Amino acid sequence: MMNGTILMESEYVKRTGFSARFLQGYAGDEFTGKLLAEMVLSAKIEGLNAEKGLERLGWDGKAYMDSLRSYVMHTPPLIEALRNLGAIADYAVTIHGIKKSSYAISAEGIGHMAERLEHAAIAGKFDFIEKTNRWFIAAAEEFIMELTALLDSMEKQRQKHRKTAPDPAALEEIFDTAKNDDISAMDSVMKTLEEYCYQYEADLLPWIREQIEKGEFGEITEWITPHEMVLFVEA
């Protein structure tokens, strides 16, 4: 049996088959990927289609974060190279690189602008490049600044709010408050639990929250019964 896992068995679990997923949990990189995916989706940076980027990488938030970090590291030198307009062929190669890496992370705003500039370079439209290049550089630099801030925030939050599993004592409180139909007390305990992300059974608290909103307190008491809850402490 997996160490550090909370196991709950009840008639509800047996009916739904939810326990197998609970035992499996989200360990190591799988947990990290899930947490980071949720964080990047909530950031909503303009011009970044995070949902599409995550989908391309199998919804692995850690892999996507690594891609974003690589973009932030390697794109600024290419942007800097655009400041000095030289041979249009060289410009086309540089802007193509920015377009390709931008689309790779689903940075569709910057990718689309870079694509227009690439087409202009191929067509020899130097006047369009001269008019647009400075504006593009400013937009790209602002996007990278926002992306850098997001990556810093993701890393800090990942470290700060990670816990192995929900506190069993708090789950007992949820049981007691659900049994007594004490919505206010239940909500207070839930808010404390929801301040953290958990390595094992990340879907448990959202499920409890859903039952609270639906008023299905009986389902909660079936799920969380103190005499059926076993805490396995890591050896």
Supply the key terms.
rod-shaped; 4 strands; disordered N terminus; two-stranded antiparallel sheet; 235 residues; disordered C terminus; Four Helix Bundle (Hemerythrin (Met), subunit A); 12 helices; two-stranded parallel ribbon; mainly alpha
Can you offer a commentary on this structure?
This protein has 235 residues and is mainly α. It has two domains: 6-29 and 162-231, no CATH class; 44-160, Four Helix Bundle (Hemerythrin (Met), subunit A) (Up-down Bundle), CATH 1.20.120. It contains twelve helices and four strands; from the N terminus they run E-H-H-H-H-H-H-H-H-E-H-H-E-H-H-E. The chain has helices at 11-16, 18-24, 28-43, 50-56, 61-81, 88-104, 108-122, 126-160, 168-179, 183-193, 204-214, 217-223, and strands at 6-8, 162-163, 197-198, 229-231. Strands 1-4 form a two-stranded antiparallel ribbon. The protein has a two-stranded parallel sheet with strand order 2-3. The protein starts with 5 loop residues before the first strand and ends with a strand. 28% of the residues are buried.
Task: Indicate the proportion of strand residues.
Answer: under 5%
- Largest beta-sheet details: 2 strands, antiparallel
According to CATH, the fold-level topology of the largest domain is Four Helix Bundle (Hemerythrin (Met), subunit A)
For this structure, what is the CATH class of the largest domain?
Mainly Alpha
Uncertain residue ranges: 1-29, 226-235
Morphology call: rod-shaped
Q: What value does the Rg take, in angstroms?
A: 24 Å
CATH architecture of the largest domain: Up-down Bundle
Spatial arrangement of strands, main beta sheet: 1-4
Oligomer: single chain
* Total DSSP E strands: 4
Please indicate the count of domains: 2
Please give the alpha-carbon distance between the first and last residues. 12 Å
Mean pLDDT: 77
Helix content: over 70%
The chain-level structural class is: mainly alpha
Q: Counting H and I runs of at least 4 residues, what is the number of helices?
A: 12
